[in-house]
Amino acid sequence: MTQPPASGRAPSIRDVARIAGVSHQTVSRVLNAHPSIRPETRERVLAVMGELNYRPNRAARALVTSRSATLGVLSASSAQYGPASSIRAIERAARAEGYFVNTVNVDGNDVDEIQAALTHLLDLGIEGLVVIAPQVRVFDALVSRGLELPFVTMQSTGRRGDHALSVDQITGARRATRHLLELGHTRIRHLAGPLDWIEAEARIVGFHAELEAAGLPPSEPLVGDWTPESGYLAGQRIAAEGDVTAVFSSNDQMALGLLHALRDAGLDVPGDVSVVGFDDIPEAAHFWPPLTTVRQDFDEFGRRCIALLLAAIRGTPVEERALVPDLIVRASTAAPRAL
Amino acid sequence: MTQPPASGRAPSIRDVARIAGVSHQTVSRVLNAHPSIRPETRERVLAVMGELNYRPNRAARALVTSRSATLGVLSASSAQYGPASSIRAIERAARAEGYFVNTVNVDGNDVDEIQAALTHLLDLGIEGLVVIAPQVRVFDALVSRGLELPFVTMQSTGRRGDHALSVDQITGARRATRHLLELGHTRIRHLAGPLDWIEAEARIVGFHAELEAAGLPPSEPLVGDWTPESGYLAGQRIAAEGDVTAVFSSNDQMALGLLHALRDAGLDVPGDVSVVGFDDIPEAAHFWPPLTTVRQDFDEFGRRCIALLLAAIRGTPVEERALVPDLIVRASTAAPRAL
DNA sequence: CCAGTTAATGTGACCGTTCACATTGCCGTG
DNA sequence: CACGGCAATGTGAACGGTCACATTAACTGG
Question: Between the CA of A32 and the C1' of C19, what is the distance in angstroms?
């Protein structure tokens, strides 16, 4: 006898089956696009589903398959433009593939918090992990944990099964530095991000590599913390020392602070000092002066992350080529005054 | 006979029970901190759990309780500082309460995408929803859907069970406007965000209310789209028209574009035109000139969101007072030149 | 000293899927 | 025409928790 689906709970596969006059397993097959279902049967089942407004219960499915269709994102400082944009792109790409994304934000300096966050994500049963804005510490936490999970990050760990997505930070940094060299600068400083950040390190490496290629002596980087304030402090030092005609900042926010400090010190940019940033945040074109910077395509980065991670999960191979950021030249750089 | 837990799958409550020599239900009780468990028994069970590295299976629990311990966040333009910060704070607060957060990013103008995103979240079985940066359209989509879910947003819908968290945007806007009035400005324009944004509307209302209170005639707002570019365009218009001594911008990014355009037009800020922003993004203090703006406490906002939402879910009452943003005075505002 | 309570624990069903393994027809083939 | 094979579907048992309802033993009061 066809009974109405027990109300109170949402309709289940069995309610659909009963009304469509098939077995629950047939309904399940329709859900999973099993090949050997007669089109006619499929239609009928789908019709009933529509009528009942049936939605598959994720928990039940996850219970039996032990697959959660959820990816985890572990992020430090996600209020910043770069990470935030990446997270956004990652979520979209994952959703398009039917995955859910769970982002956890941590203070990258707090090892306990990182561990707790990781535990949180594992409790959730994530199938894969993306690590955004990794600091060395975050990284160590992952490795020390002996994580079995497929994960994607911005630098290779050398472990089997790890999939590193490389944005070629080194080349990006070289392009910024080369631009300054080509303009004729020889006394160039680098304002780096915190040294325990993988990206900061890569940009330092790129900076030095380019200097070396030009036959210039290495120059000790100043260290900031990504904030405009730290850029301001660095700018004060640079102005005080007064022996530099160009600065390459590891991100745009610090470059902004730099511009501020140089201006306050009575120095003209680019007349006295040229400044290059990194990221091309939306504000950069409107700084005073508009900032020459290295553009990162965060959207593309996010999409690649997901492509790579899903490939790792599914065991399909992907050929992965590094993303290379572009130099965007604006008014904050010019030839040094005294050639 | 005590058999080793079947390997392959993670240990279950029954594995723990067998080894600890109790029933599976006792283990369940330990998990749920049931009062009538002898401390001695609890210890034993906990010890076994630790030994086996047992973790409760969320899917199984969700299946039987129909509670997912997951909250949804629906966000538009989450790469911006405000939304990104809020999301971060929300996630932290939720995690501290044992909830998972699933954020979905949409283009707020695409109604279909909003619906799809909502479906995505509902499929997940979220217990509550936070809507960030709501546009009227997003809002309508929620309401038209007749959502049964507890949700939190920035403006009341008037529906039963809806919980609005008010950041008092109107007062914030009034403070900004009053500051300009107190400096002696009388010809003030407002650069608004897109008119379909609830926040943009509130700031317009605040702006007009304050003008009216001062006995000044209303001033038609210019409309931007939150980006620095739109601020630049608005700045060009303002410079061309030349009849204004102060501008209140609905966010800091547009204010940045404004500063840029005014400078390009040869106008001095604050000498010729004063500018006030809104949000106090970390860059604002380093703009040229440093920007007077209205500070929003996004962290506090995120925490309140979660407190309110959990209260709605649990049915506990909360007394909710509006968050009022503060005016931060910097160098971009001054008395008008010709008093 | 026994009925009634309560603290501490056990038993079996159930949540909504998928999985492994039947069970039907129907077709072609030797 | 019996039979293997395949296409289409059905059956019952997991999955790992919680829930409702026993059960047991110790404790109370009259």
Answer: 13
Give the model confidence (pLDDT) of A251-296 as tens digits: 999 999 999 999 999 999 999 999 999 999 999 999 999 999 999 9
pLDDT single digits (tens) B152-167:
886 655 454 556 676 7
Task: Please indicate whether residue A140 or residue B171 has the higher confidence score (pLDDT).
Answer: B171
Helix (H, G, I), strand (E, B) or coil at B26: helix
- Map residue A148 onto helix, strand or coil: coil
Q: What is the pLDDT of residues B237-257, one digit of tens each?
A: 999 999 999 999 999 999 999
Indicate whether A325 pLDDT > 60.
yes
Strand D bases with any atom < 7 A from protein Cβ? 7-12, 14-20
Interchain CB contacts (distance < 8 Å): A and B: 131
Q: Is A103 an interface residue toward B (CB < 8 Å)?
A: yes
Joined together, the tokens standing for residue B184 give: 């002696």
What average pLDDT does this structure show over B36-41?
93
Q: Give CA–CA dist B256/A9, Å, rounded.
A: 53
Closest by alpha carbon to B179, among B332, B338, B333, B297?
B333
Between CA A151 and CA A211, with CA A171 as vertex, the angle to 5 degrees is: 135
CA distance A235 to A264: 9
Asked if the Cβ–Cβ distance from A78 to B87 is below 8 Å, we say: yes
Contacting residues 6-35/A vs strand C (CB within 7 A): 9-10, 12-14, 24-25, 28, 31-32
Distance between CA atoms of residues A258 and A233, nearest Å? 8
Any idea what DSSP says for residue A197? B
Q: How far apart are CA A141 and CA A109, in angstroms?
A: 11
Task: Give me the pLDDT at residue B141, please.
Answer: 81
Q: Cα separation of A257 and A87, whole Å?
A: 26
DSSP annotation string for A168-196: -HHHHHHHHHHHHHHTT--SEEEEE--TT
Cβ-Cβ contacts under 8 Å for B295 (sequence gap 6 or more): B279, B280, B325, B326, B327, B328
